[in-house]
Amino acid sequence: MDQRFILTDSAQSPLICGLPDDIAFLCLARVAREYHALLKCVSKRWRELVCSEEWYFYRRKHNLDETWIYALCRDQEEQLHCYVLDPNQLRRGWKCIRGLPLRSLKRKGMGFEVLGNKAYILGGCCWYEDACDEVYCYDASMNSWNEAPPLSTGRCYFACEALDDKIYAIGGQGPKSSDPCSWDTYDPHTNTWKSHVDPNVVPDIEDSMVFDGKIYIRCGSSAVSSHVYAVVYNLSSGTWEHADDDMVSGWRGPAVVVDNTLYVLDQSSGTRLMMWCKGKREWVAIGRLSSLFTMPPCRLVSIGKSIFVIGKGLRTVVVDVGNAGNAGGVLMSSSVRQWISLGDVISCKTIAI
């Protein structure tokens, strides 16, 4: 165990009376995440410990971390909100995260991505403001928002993905004509952005995902063709390439990867979960989701072997693809019986602490 936090505070009163600090740390680190907010209220030392990097890395190293879901949403007044869900406490439902930066509340076309225990909101624009370069960081351990280093250029309606411990902000609209063919990478270790240009980046981005260690970007079908076009960023070569047509042909909805298997939610007629069989190079239908619980358009996120289908009003359905039974073609699932007066869910991510 990293002793930096404990040694720094060794002159203070013990974490728990009668116990050495290293033993107290081992005990406290095993407290369930739902009680971490209460731990912070005990004392300043406990709060600093729960918010520390040592706490975060120790829980990850010893498989004590618990994953929660974070959703960036827009309400009926076109204002942004951020919510969190503890998947182990589905009956408690979604909780609103306060303190979202005021300057970002009315923006559209923003990026939302996660690195470690931090979530980032990037760029965006609105009717009175061109594409901006602002980035805001939410520290899930401290439950606080802060301004982060800005993008290399302003962007809105762009692809945003995390790969190899970096954030990629790709294409979209910006102040310069070259912006749709450029992308920025954020390195948290140097806390800086680096700009890149490649003419192969798709100009009109509809969706993106990370699969097989690569970033896939999809544009929509054009007026003259129903063909779905996509490019893929190969991290090993640092280049953008044309994606395989057979895989891209079935990518017509939100996607999520579970155990290196790609799933897509087809929302063209109801909601149907599809799986990409990489060996056979074909898409297979897993089953439909009940229209009583889903509320398209939906977003997907996964924890373990469970896929969370999150739609309008944060209506949430959970499907265990490791045991995906169905009745009459309808997938068996559980749901969060909660309705929040919201418009669309923009993006969903997970943070494990």
From TrEMBL:
<dbReference type="InterPro" id="IPR057499">
    <property type="entry name" value="Kelch_FKB95"/>
</dbReference>
<protein>
    <recommendedName>
        <fullName>F-box domain-containing protein</fullName>
    </recommendedName>
</protein>
<feature type="domain" description="F-box">
    <location>
        <begin position="19"/>
        <end position="59"/>
    </location>
</feature>
<dbReference type="Pfam" id="PF25210">
    <property type="entry name" value="Kelch_FKB95"/>
</dbReference>
<dbReference type="InterPro" id="IPR036047">
    <property type="entry name" value="F-box-like_dom_sf"/>
</dbReference>
<keyword id="KW-0880">Kelch repeat</keyword>
<dbReference type="Pfam" id="PF00646">
    <property type="entry name" value="F-box"/>
</dbReference>
<dbReference type="InterPro" id="IPR001810">
    <property type="entry name" value="F-box_dom"/>
</dbReference>
<dbReference type="InterPro" id="IPR006652">
    <property type="entry name" value="Kelch_1"/>
</dbReference>
<dbReference type="InterPro" id="IPR015915">
    <property type="entry name" value="Kelch-typ_b-propeller"/>
</dbReference>
<keyword id="KW-0677">Repeat</keyword>
